[in-house]
Amino acid sequence: MVDVQTEIIIKSPISKVSAYASNPDHAPEWYVNIQSAKWRTPKPLMLGSQIEFKAKFLGRELTYVYEIVEYIPDKMLVMKTANGPFPMETTYTWQTIDDKQTRMKLRNKGEPTGFSKVFSPVMATMMKKANMKDLEKIKSILERAPR
């Protein structure tokens, strides 16, 4: 089992942070490893929405589909892989610190299969590093540009 949690404080109101982070169209802008996001179901984002992501991780190209299983605007978003090589659940949570600051948490947990099981500890470390880079990127995007 891999379970990685990271968090960051973003100098931006919760509504702006959660709206940006929960829009899959923005994922390639702030996720280091995600190259594209394609809607498999009609917009807007809701329970049951499916988004296909193409990513590069540990030198491998991956394509997987996430399904939205829980969504409370300005609070949390939970998505699980509907298919793909590595069953994964990703959770975003947002907390107001004050009207100008938001704490964003990013959690990835999953069960590697087959050969990947051997590399679980290495994967967890790599994922944590990648997640911190992702949070630092979304922070820099949201703190520099008025949206």
As a whole number of angstroms, the C-alpha radius of gyration is 15 Å
- Quickly give the CATH architecture: 2-Layer Sandwich
Given as residue ranges, the uncertain stretches (5+ residues, pLDDT < 50) are none
Could you give me the name of the CATH homologous superfamily? START domain
Number of strands: 7
What is the share of helical residues? Answer: 25-40%
Number of domains: 1
- CATH fold-level name: Alpha-D-Glucose-1,6-Bisphosphate, Chain A, domain 4
The number of helical elements comes to 3
Task: Give a concise summary.
With 147 residues, the protein is of the alpha+beta class.
Explained architecture:
The protein is an alpha+beta fold and about 150 residues long. The chain has one domain: Alpha-D-Glucose-1,6-Bisphosphate, Chain A, domain 4, CATH 3.30.530.20. Helix content is about 25%, strand content about 45%. It contains three helices and seven strands; from the N terminus they run E-H-H-E-E-E-E-E-E-H. The protein has helices at about 15-20, 25-30, 120-145; strands spanning about 1-10, 35-40, 50-55, 60-70, 75-85, 90-100, 100-110. Strands 1-7-6-5-4-3-2 form a seven-stranded antiparallel β-sheet. Strand 3 and strand 4 form a beta hairpin. The longest helix has 25 residues, at about 120-145. The chain is globular and about 45 Å long. The model has no long low-confidence stretch (mean pLDDT about 90).
